[in-house]
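Hey,
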Amino acid sequence: MPTMGIQESIDILKRAQEIDSEIHRFQQEIDSIPEILRHLTEEFDKEKARWNQLESDLKQTQLRQREKEKQLLEKEELIKKYDVQLMQVKTNKEYSALQQEMASLKADNSMIEDQILAILDEVDRIQTSFREEKTRLGEAERTLQEKKKELGERSEKLKADLDSLKQKRTEILSQVPPDTRHLYDKIIQKKEGLALVHAEGESCGACRIRIRPQVLNELKLKEALVVCENCSRILYVD
């Protein structure tokens, strides 16, 4: 069986590298999916937290409203009680004292009524924000579920494509000598999909470092694989 020439090996490695570039791109996309999902989930959780806070604010404000209404009712009942007592007192001093107490209670009630009106305005504002946030939360949840489904399907497709590419890669690399395949595999793992680079003029096409004349001569002779002395990638010339 004739020995495979360097140029033939280079041509096969070029095809392998095209596939490895795709493999690298697909794997990066697969690896990015969990981060995308984490970000989407965080955004949804923030939306839900805003909704929960508004719900809590609404409950607390409505509780304040009920407490004020209770205070108002208690004072109104007390005014009615004093009003009845006014008909029963026997001295001007007692009558005057009850009137003053009733006046004080009515003043308190007026202030409480103003507070209740202010609280009602606040309740209306929070309820409006609560409804709007609930709508946004529903939309955010639908978007999250759709994205989860979409990304899940995309991930499955990428994995299937990746398996197919890896099988094709194995078939292609089986055509080169074991030592060449081993060297290529070692470099491709470290260089993220770029193990083979064209020498541009007298420089490495990847790291741009100038190639020494002796190395450049070896490259042109095509008697053995030549690697860049700086970035360790396999060099080739046309």
